[in-house]
Amino acid sequence: METTWQEQLRAAGLRVTRPRLSVLQVLAERPHADVDTIVTAARTVHPTLSPQAVYGVLEALVAGGLARRIEPAGAPALFELRVGDNHHHLVCRSCVAVADVDCTVGAAPCLTPSDTAGFVVDEAEVVFWGLCRACRAQTPADTVQVLQHDNRGGARG
Amino acid sequence: METTWQEQLRAAGLRVTRPRLSVLQVLAERPHADVDTIVTAARTVHPTLSPQAVYGVLEALVAGGLARRIEPAGAPALFELRVGDNHHHLVCRSCVAVADVDCTVGAAPCLTPSDTAGFVVDEAEVVFWGLCRACRAQTPADTVQVLQHDNRGGARG
DNA sequence: CGGTTTTCTTGAACGAGTCAAATCAAGACG
DNA sequence: CGTCTTGATTTGACTCGTTCAAGAAAACCG
Questions:
Q1: Does B71 contact chain A (CB < 8 Å)?
Q2: What is the pLDDT of residues B3-54, one digit of tens each?
Q3: What is the phi/psi pair of residue B23, to 5°?
Q4: Do A5-70 and A85-150 show the same overall fold?
Q5: I want to staple B67 with a disulfide (CB 3.0 to 4.6 A). Which of A72, B61, B72, B90 is the partner?
């Protein structure tokens, strides 16, 4: 880590507080944590931390560019510190585990739609849906088919 | 439309009911409607229709492959009848208007990640975030910058 | 037309997230 | 080092989208 969290907070115009440092530490250890996970983990360091404080901290971190919020459909929001680079996410349909994917291709034709219907696009968000290794091992094969069936018609890129 | 809704419902093993036909009609007129919109619109045809019935109908339609559910981050779920083809969505950050985007490129390199971290991927979902024409016209330029700032670090494909 | 099964209605409940007022702490300044 | 000002956190209530459960209604089969 080049700069400390203190420095990053100050650079974003934010005060350095215990709740913020606790949340940053948790996010560094768990790259895609939801609010509940963050609260629970942060309380080992700061036992009186309230969920609302965590919402406030995360809002400040996202606004300050220190954290990013991702919201997989049907799951509570997740937060990550990896910011400012070009990466997407793999999400497990069964356990909502998330893994990062680097975009391996420089120019991605599909991500600059030809007809934008009058929209000015500033971000292309890609989510890869599937099953993680652990859930595949636990899950009988027919359940996998059910999961896929429920989402048939989904885009394949 | 090649086949009638009655036929499509039966083909999916679903009974043909008034609530279902009402919801299908609304979705045909409004391609990306949320539950509230569907309930309100469907009541012009079927005044006693309950919100819970609409949830049930939509769940059945999605399970039967007649409709697709899309959940833009931070907005209630939207439903569309366009199913089984390869298209993505443009979403307005300001008004959550949604437009369809056809994927104009046959092979999309970015959508087959090289390292899937043990995941078996069955769907790549792409959401383009931006501002629609109407909101750009209404919105002062600095507000646009704020919106973009709030999401800096987002992937650009 | 009657019986069986699915679907709808009605009412309650849940989880994630937000709002607002009061308290508290961080950092600036003297 | 203490005070002051502003920003952050706590506490508590609340909203919204969605889901659950039991009984009533309707669709479909024969």
A1: yes
A2: 899 999 999 999 999 999 999 999 999 999 999 999 999 999 999 999 999 9
A3: -65, -40
A4: no
A5: B61
Domain boundaries, chain B: 5-70, 85-150
Using CB atoms within 10 Å of the CB of residue B38, give its burial: 0 to 12 exposed, 13 to 18 middle, 19+ buried.
buried
Question: Quick one: tokens of A117?
Answer: 């219907």
Q: Which residue has the tokens 């646009």?
A: B144
pLDDT tens for each residue of B93-152: 999 999 998 875 554 545 676 678 899 998 889 999 999 999 998 866 555 444 444 443
Cβ of A49 less than 7 A from strand D:
yes
Q: Looking at chain B from residue 18 to 57, which residues have their Cβ under 8 Å from any Cβ of chain A?
A: none
- Quick check: B53 and B60 in contact, CB under 8 A? no
| Banded model confidence at residue A132, pLDDT cuts 50, 70, 90 | very high
- Hey, of B55, B111, B146, which one would you mutate to test binding to chain A, going by the most A CBs within 10 A of its CB? B111
> What are the φ/ψ torsions at residue B86 (nearest 5 degrees)?
-110, 90
Architecture in CATH of A85-150 = 2-Layer Sandwich (3.30)
A98's tokens: 């998330």
Task: Provide the chain B residues 86-105 that lie in CB contact (below 8 A) with chain A.
Answer: 86-88, 90, 92, 99, 101-105
Rounded mean pLDDT of B149-156? 41
Find, among B52, B10, B49, the residue nearest to B26 by Cα. Answer: B49
**One-letter amino acid of B140:** P
- Asked whether residue B69, judged by its CB, lies under 7 Å from any atom of the DNA or RNA strand D, the reply is no
* Bases along strand D below 7 A from a protein CB: 7-13, 16-21, 26-28
